[in-house]
Amino acid sequence: MIKALPYKFLTSLLFTSLLLLSASVVQAANCAHRGVLDDKFCDENKDLVADTPKDSSKWRDPSTLVFTYTPVEDPAVYKDAFSEFQKYLTEITGKRVVYFTVHSNAAEVEAMRSGRLHIAGFSTGPTGYAVNLAGYVPIAVKGTEESFQGYNLIIVVKKDSPIKTIADLKGKLVAHTSASSNSGNLAPRALFPDSGITPDKDYTVKYSGKHDQSILGVMTGDYDAAPVASDVFHRMANAGRIKKDDFRIIFTSPRFPTSSFGYAHDLNPDLASKIQYAFSTFRFTSKMQETFGGADRFFPITYKKDWKVIRDIAHATGTAYTKKGLKKLAEKDAAKAAKKKAKKLAEEAKKKMK
After folding, report:
1. Same domain, 143 and 155
2. Under 8 Å CB-to-CB from 7, ≥6 apart: which residues?
3. What total number of domains does the chain contain?
4. Most exposed residue of 15, 123, 176, 301, measured as fewest CB within 10 angstroms of its CB?
5. What's the pTM value of the predicted model, to 2 decimals?
């Protein structure tokens, strides 16, 4: 027999529920427009990114700023590449700046949403998740004085492959990078059907995890082809990791913006202004220019205007920058990480047996 709950407990529970409901109503009433942003944020100026909180008590002014860059390739490479920029951020803001290594796009979004990450570079596709769910404010893209640095979706195959066009991908094993990637997954799903080929239907999709892994997989014969970001392909070639002559490019898309850079929406406005100033005035070192394909600065952008093509591709593929979408992304990231770890353990065990 189930005992009746005490009257005082029920009264307390009801009171707490009413307080939570009241807080939710007040929050909604205090926000005239939210758009597609998470309930935690407001967008009254309708620029599609989260506004600075109206309540100054919610502004954050940490003594140490945490910075990271998207986990596109080897994280260690970019930790070193951004070291001079971190020093400049310290000079401008007067705060210590540390680099936080992330190993998945979902983890990077969650880090900013939880308040553990203050300044970041997000890959093109995941930028939308960061904006809608983490209160991320994109302000720049790597570039030059004339324009931001762009990239194309390219399809790479081995130089002796019989694949000549997108139509030839039918029946093949094709490496996509990750579910949230623009050039590595979303753009192919939006653009390829116009050429008569639908991913998953006309060819088998296998997620590699990263652009460089897709490219290396094509080189070793693990995949027949791979849609990847052109800037990653050229960086790998320039670094000597691959030889361009070992590949053929059978398709090149229109130009997309590269990774965005920005900060958390709830930073103290004075601090946010200093961060913006640092991005606008910093000039890349020769090492950074070499690493980032000739870009010599951070070029100013807006999410509303410059990410429109990316949002359109996401909408065309049914991708929603929601909690549910991020959860799926995290699950895929976890599955890939587990598979990678299992493969590594198997290789180590194989070596010990020799």
Report:
1. no
2. none
3. 2
4. 15
5. 0.72
Neighbouring CB atoms inside 10 A of 112's CB total 26
Q: For residue 38, with 0-12 CB atoms within 10 Å meaning exposed, 13-18 middle and 19 or more buried, which class applies?
A: middle
For residue 138, the surrounding DSSP H or E stretch is strand 136-143
Burial class (CB in 10 A: 0-12, 13-18, 19+), 312: exposed
Domain span at residue 228? 150-257
Cα–Cα distance for residue pair 295/257, rounded to 1 Å: 13
Residue 4 lies in a domain: no
Q: Is 210:179 a contact under the CB 8 Å cutoff?
A: no
Partner residues linked to 145 by β-bridges: none
Q: What is the mean pLDDT of the chain?
A: 88
Q: Under a CB-based contact definition with an 8 Å cutoff, are residues 78 and 109 in contact?
A: no
Pairing of strands 173-176, 204-207: parallel
Query: Six-digit token pair at 44?
Result: 């009254």
| Helices assigned H by DSSP within the chain | 7-29, 75-81, 83-93, 105-113, 127-134, 187-191, 211-220, 230-238, 269-281, 286-291, 303-306, 308-316, 323-353
Residue with tokens 């290594």: 101
| Whole-number Å distance between alpha carbons of 325 and 346 | 32
* Measured distance CA(122)–CA(70) in Å, rounded: 5
Q: What is the tens place of the pLDDT at every residue in 146-163?
A: 999 888 999 999 999 999
144 shares its domain with 266: yes
Residue whose pair of structure tokens reads 């770890």 in the numeric block: 341
User: Quick one: 185 and 126 in the same domain?
Assistant: no
CA pseudo-torsion sign 160, 164, 168, 169: positive
**Does the pLDDT of residue 75 top 80, yes or no?**
no
Choice between 245 and 4, residue whose per-residue pLDDT is larger:
245
In a domain, residue 291? The reply is: yes
Cβ neighbourhood burial of 202 (10 Å; 0-12, 13-18, 19+) = middle
**Which tens digits make up the pLDDT trace of 162-177?**
999 999 999 999 999 9
Which two structure tokens, joined as six digits, stand for 142?
């790597």
Q: Measured in whole angstroms, how far is the alpha carbon of residue 320 from the centre of its chain? A: 14
Residues 6+ apart with CB under 8 A from 94: none
